[in-house]
Amino acid sequence: MQHAVGAPLPPPQGPGHGPAGWTHSAQHPGAPAGPPPTGPAGPPPVAPAGPAHPQGRPPAAPAGSPPPQGRPPAHPPQGQPHGGHPAPGWSGPAPQQASAPASRETTGHIPLPPGGPVPIPAPPLSDSGTGVATLAVLLIGPAGAGKTTVARHWATSRRVPTAHISLDDVREWVCSGFADPQSGWNDHSEAQYRLARRTCGFAARNFLANGISCILDDAVFPDRPVVGLGGWKRHIGPGLLPVVLLPGLEIVLERNAERSGNRRLSDEEVAGIHGRMAGWYGSGLPIIDNSKYDVETTARVLDDVLARSIASPPNW
Predict the structure, then answer these.
(1) Which of 60, 72, 140, 305 has the most C-beta neighbours closer than 10 Å?
(2) What is the rounded distance in angstroms from the CA atom of residue 219 to the CA atom of residue 153?
């Protein structure tokens, strides 16, 4: 009798061929692959005696046969416990251990406290300079006084983290549409100056809130307290420590001559700014005449002046 290709074969008929519904597999799991053995014609093999299996499930493989491909063994091999560690005398492959969960990356999970008004600093613990105190310093002076150079050196030489923020640098962040004060002080230059000062104030407060001292430098005029020193105090807080760096006019003119670009002013402008800075005398702010000091000495004197300002804050 001929059957269609792909149609299931009917179960074998006759005694000794398994229970009803049993479908004889052409190859038993675990049996070697290949064509069936040839031999004399006779009745088909009898299914092994034993309990009936559910419909469609083949009988269990003989002991010692490997599990069907793609299915793990139901139980570990003899001698290997369920805990994943080989038993004494076990010579098989080492069990795979579950990998430990990856530790959380620390980068990006550091909390940053928001910056608030800087309070008056506590007196330094050491008798030499500012020690490890966290400070907000404003270094005032005319163009050519050495503010930027001294501020950077002081920040670099401290034993604790200290940042230097230059108002001129922040003002020059504006690339297109920069309002150069040398072209005339107008509403645009005034607005960019105020914006730069406010940006510096925000930066200083954020640094201070995270344990980093700051020193800022600006040419603040004593005859403009609202937009000058008062503005810095509003943006940073009562803990701001102002110090005036005021060398002689000859020194300022000499240093200004070494500048280039829009940082260099005319001699008339330098003389006018220097004359206005003289108004700081009698203001109560500490003044350093660094006409005969090099950068390192000026930074050391600045640190001593700041230590005295912490112990006895100036009234401004």
Answers:
(1) 140
(2) 18
